[in-house]
Specification:
The protein has helices at 10-20, 39-54, 78-94, 155-161, 163-179, and strands at residues 4-6, 25-27, 58-67, 73-75, 99-109, 114-125, 141-143. The chain is α/β, with parallel strands linked by helices. The protein has a single domain (4-179), classed as Maf protein (Alpha-Beta Complex).
Length: 180
């Protein structure tokens, strides 16, 4: 079965391929993304639009970062917040209460059946960005039980505990059952 991961982000594509441990194809499609406070709504809408263009089974993934002191804002609007205030601004304006949650949601759509899988990791926002830039906010998110940000970890380390790994592992279990 040809399965297309619709993303233009090569880092996301590489992480997904390692987690799924089977060949997927990358589709770099320009698809307008709805704005919603529910990451599930975003990926489901994008998966339908991607399927309409490709007419092949697709997966779409999006992430959210919920900051407790901001009343769980920005959630899936994190990229907009980064574009306006930067990750340094997020660190600066988070304050003393730095608790956060990272969430990933993956949608699979084959033209008939939509399935979504989510994973989350609790952690804190660092006081300043640290580590190599892979994803916008990897440099400021420290997962629970760690002293390092996601960006300070080797990709294999991150893939053992990340929100993306948890969502893609659920997708993998579903696909393994579907193929049998």
């Amino acid at each position: 079965m040809d399965l297309y991961f619709v993303t233009s982000n090569r880092n996301k594509f590489a992480e997904a391929g390692k987690i799924l441990d089977f060949e997927i194809k990358q589709a770099k499609l320009e698809i307008p993304e709805i704005q919603s406070l529910k990451v599930k709504d975003i990926v489901e809408d994008k998966a339908r639009k991607a399927y309409e263009k490709l007419r092949k089974p697709v997966i779409v993934e999006d992430t959210a970062l919920y900051i407790r002191s901001w009343r769980n804002f920005p959630g899936p609007l994190i990229s907009w917040v980064i574009k306006t205030m930067g990750i340094n601004g997020i660190c600066k304006f988070t304050g003393k209460e730095r608790t956060a949650k990272a969430e990933a949601c993956v949608a699979y759509y084959d033209g008939k059946r939509m399935r979504t899988f989510s994973g989350s990791v609790r952690g804190i926002i660092s006081k300043k960005p640290r580590g190599a830039r892979r994803f916008d906010w990897d440099r400021i998110f420290i997962p629970e039980g760690e002293k390092r940000t996601f960006a300070e970890m080797e990709i294999e380390e991150k893939n053992k505990i990340s929100h993306r790994m948890k969502a893609f592992k659920k997708l993998k279990r579903f696909l393994d059952l579907k193929v049998k």
